[in-house]
Every structure is written in structure tokens, then in C-alpha cells.
Amino acid sequence: MEYQFKDFFISYAMAYNKKNNRIGALFINPFRRIKVNNDSHFTQLVIYIHANVVKHKLQKKFQQYIWSSYQSFLINKPTLLIKEEVLDWFGGKEKFIELHQSLVAYYYEHAMSIE
Q: How is the chain split into domains, by residue range?
């Protein structure tokens, strides 16, 4: 199955590039890897990932964005996420919610970057 998706995306990228007279990857450029240097940075990144939709004006409230993993951390359904580890990192579900709300409000109120 993995190879079928890989082949599909490669074929799609090649066809798109040919049609639009371009070269290069379609799916990699917008993403980047960064080194997480400390605990605080990890916390900020988790919140940044969930709150980025507010920054880009895709949603007014990050909690309501249906493509976010934020709600998945709060429900008791099985997912592929390592929910317990992340929630424990934040000090539990309540602290996870509280920190998201307070830090997102603070960062956007003060026009600060949380990347």
C-alpha cells in the first residue's frame, strides 16, 4: 500500500510539472525540519501546530479547525497519536487545554511568533 501511494504521488507530480512547465517537488517545499532544543520549545511547537490556522486566518478559533489533531487529544477514541505521552507532557488534559488557550491568546494579542 505504501508503494502505491508513493507511485501515485510521483505520477501526479510528474504530470502536474509537465502540464505547468515546471520542475521539482510539489509536496516537500512548504515543510521544513527544525531541531527542538529544549522542553519549552517542544511545548511551543505543539501549540504552534494547533494554533497556526488562526495566524493564517483559516479559522477564528483553533479548537474548531476540523483538520487539527487538537480535538483528537481531548476525546477518548483510539487514534494513531501518542496522546497519553503528550498530555502527560503538558501535565494532563486540563493543563493541555489551559496552556493552549492562554498561550495562543498571549502570542496573538502581542503579535508574537510561536514558531
A: 1-31, 36-115
